[in-house]
């Protein structure tokens, strides 16, 4: 769940659940090609086909820009809530969010009935993450990013799991290899799911047999709601600071300012 601000994307990574796939940790920090070969063997042992492994990891190289970004961004919000929300919840974005509530009203009603999450919360998250899917979903090759981060010894086990989860997304046929493009921690799609979250919470809400969080609005919005529901969202409950649902949103992002911004945006969309 990416934050477009001077915030550690590490916070988003830490907020995401770890995939259940077992990982026998490959040796980080040594020769990169040897590390990728070890990860390839681990992927095969977890049921990923040699074709997918070869296409995804063949010729992958270390990305120093990803490591540099990671080291720069491991801080906290440097603005107050008032300063931050003024840059993110603009008049144009509120107008766009209300248009989305209208355009997808029937879909959002079905999602609320099934998952208990109100439309304004889902649309607020959607708007903050990628401007309702119209904004930047990231331009970096996911496998290069995740292999780079997994090879780095600071959080190698976490990112090894993310790398295996990303391979499973392609193995399942949810996304093509060309669609595996994302942000600086490997986040994917219109609400910026890490691969492990994609596997754990992704919902095929359009019924086409695949979970597509890049192109399918029904899948995107239902999966976003499902993440909150699975982590304890209470239908009809308050979502402001101090409420149980506000704490549930820690599973989306641990930053209190970001969660307050979701609530503030949702209030504006609901006319409050």
Automatic annotation (TrEMBL):
Which biological processes are named by the entry's GO terms?
A: peptidoglycan catabolic process
Question: Which intervals hold domain Transglycosylase SLT?
Answer: 32-239
Cited Pfam families: SLT_2
> Where in the sequence is the signal peptide annotated?
1-25
Q: What keywords are assigned to this protein?
A: Signal
Where does the source fall among the domains of life?
Bacteria
MF terms (GO), sorted A to Z? peptidoglycan lytic transglycosylase activity
The name under which this protein is listed is Lytic murein transglycosylase
